[in-house]
Design goal:
Blueprint (H helix, E strand, L loop, with lengths): L2 H13 L4 H13 L1 H6 L2 H4 L2 H5 L4 E10 L5 E12 L5 E7 L5 H17 L6 E6 L8 H15 L8 E4 L6 H15 L19 H18 L9 E4 L4 H12 L3 E2 L1 E4 L2 E4 L6 H12 L6 H7 L2 E4 L3 H4 L4 E3 L9 H9 L4 E3 L8 H9 L3 E3 L1 H4 L2 H15 L5 H25 L6 H19 L4
Parallel strand pairs: 3-4, 3-5, 6-7, 6-11, 11-12, 12-13
Antiparallel strand pairs: 1-2, 2-4, 8-9, 9-10
Bound molecules: glutamic acid (GLU).
Glutamic acid binds next to β3 and α17.
Length: 447
């Protein structure tokens, strides 16, 4: 890593030692932009790296609520407003026990560059809570969301900060959050994305992250004269991203043979499609059950306590769950099992060591900030429709999503080529995102 970048990473670690995920995300981006910093000393003179790692604003708050037994529960809420150089803050809300300041800052940092890649005017943010929706009734989730929004509402707005969903936050939670915001502000505005279709949501937003990953993967394979047709794919999480990725991948001729959760993984050699895909889609959103139920229902093998990466033979791995779900040993197992392509549908699911294993083995590897940007891009399209007070057709939104994914793919390859790492999507995505944000910051002075 270049001297200046290294000194900023070291300062970040010294200043906030308890934030390993944030250090990891900063280290990856700054390593990748090293050639840019060498070519253009003005970024150093303007202290762009020091400014990028300091969130514009961090909001942390108490979220008290009453559970169904009448007991008082207290969770912690967050919104990290990282960077607004190119547009209002934008990024999801995550409700999961692993949420803390480090995960929020890493996700907001990644979001800043991801959003820049979408070609749409959106800054970067992330928020959420250590609240666990699993095992909670609808009424409890509603009370939690109302309490969460009762603090958050004063910090967001359609021109300020527009949250959306992420892990643990889907259509149900967005509904409760939106209802409370509207009640508190007495305003019906596009303050959240991922809304229901009858009240300001966009067609294709639920499908967008998964479809976008499939479109990006299609572009990657095309650079090798190949396609998704006939490919065997392993995935992990079976939430919104995993489900719609499978739907599109199957439509494009691929076979998806695994899914998993924290308890283990399912191996389905015949591939998930038809009735099985419909069940998978409902597994969490309707039944709120473990992936094991899928194995039981369809007579597939359930491998407790393991991840699909260790034992499933596949051509392509698409991690769809959580940060750092693929470590170096998982990566070596994937390579040994014949995997040739890794496309991140989750945010930072591969450790830096895992990425090194893939790159040394000559795999095609795409980082989440490029490959999974279709979700937030379609959130951007939802914002545009809300501002115009009209709705585009499914075909129109899907066409725009596909174009955006193609343009992100092109931008990654062009930036990688221009700065001496042809074909390296990680370098290309980080540089293309960085240049857009850094140049906007330079234009706007010291703010
Ligand atoms: N949580 C999604 C992401 O990681 C979507 C964010 C949004 O739509 O604002 O990009």
């Amino acid at each position: 890593m270049q001297e200046y970048a290294r000194s900023v990473v070291e300062a970040v670690i010294a200043r906030d030692p308890g934030e390993p995920e944030f250090h990891q995300a900063v280290g990856e981006v700054f390593e990748a932009v090293t050639p840019v910093l060498e070519t253009y000393p003005e970024y150093r003179e303007s202290r762009i790296l020091e400014r990028l790692v300091e969130p514009e604003r961090v909001i942390m708050f108490r979220v008290p609520w009453v559970d169904d037994r009448g007991d008082i529960q207290v969770n912690r809420g967050f919104r990290v407003q990282m960077n607004s150089a190119i547009g209002p803050y934008k990024g999801g809300l995550r409700f999961h026990p692993s949420v803390n300041l480090s995960t929020m800052k890493f996700l907001a940092f990644e979001q800043t560059f991801k959003n820049a890649l979408t070609t749409l005017p959106m800054g970067g943010a992330k928020g959420g809570s250590d609240f666990q929706t699993r095992g909670r009734s609808d009424a409890e989730v509603m009370r939690f969301c109302q309490s969460f929004m009762t603090e958050l509402y004063r910090h967001i707005g359609p021109h300020t900060d527009v949250p959306a969903g992420d892990i643990g936050v889907g259509g149900r939670e967005i509904g409760y959050l939106f209802g409370q915001y509207k009640r508190l502000k007495n305003e019906f505005t596009g303050v959240l994305t991922g809304k229901g279709l009858g009240w300001g949501g966009s067609l294709v937003r639920p499908e967008a992250t998964g479809y976008g990953v499939a479109y990006f993967l299609t572009e990657m394979l095309a650079t090798r004269g190949d396609s998704l047709s006939g490919k065997t794919i392993a995935i992990s999480g079976y939430g919104n991203v995993g489900t719609y990725f499978v739907e599109k991948a199957v439509e494009l001729g691929a076979k998806v043979v695994s899914l998993g959760d924290e308890f283990g993984c399912v191996f389905d050699p015949d591939g998930i499609s038809g009735e099985k895909l419909a069940y998978m889609a409902d597994l969490w959103t309707v039944y709120r059950k473990s992936a094991k139920e899928y194995a039981d229902k369809f007579g597939c093998e359930w491998r407790p306590g393991t991840k699909p990466w260790r034992s499933v033979k596949c051509d392509i791995a698409v991690p769809t769950a959580m940060q750092n779900e693929i470590d170096a040993d998982d990566a070596r197992a994937l390579v040994a099992n014949g995997c040739r392509v890794v496309c991140e549908a989750a945010n930072m699911p591969c450790t830096p060591e895992a990425v090194r294993v893939f790159q040394e083995a000559g795999l095609l590897y795409a980082p989440g900030k490029a490959a999974n940007a279709g979700g937030v891009a379609t959130s951007g399209l939802e914002m545009s429709q809300n501002s115009m007070r009209l709705s585009w057709t499914r075909e129109e939104v899907d066409r725009r999503l596909r174009q955006i994914m193609q343009s992100i793919h092109r931008a990654c390859l062009e930036a990688a080529e221009r700065f001496g790492s042809p074909g390296d999507y990680a370098v290309g995505a980080n540089i293309a995102g960085f240049l857009k944000v850094a140049d906007a910051m330079m234009d706007q002075g010291v703010v």
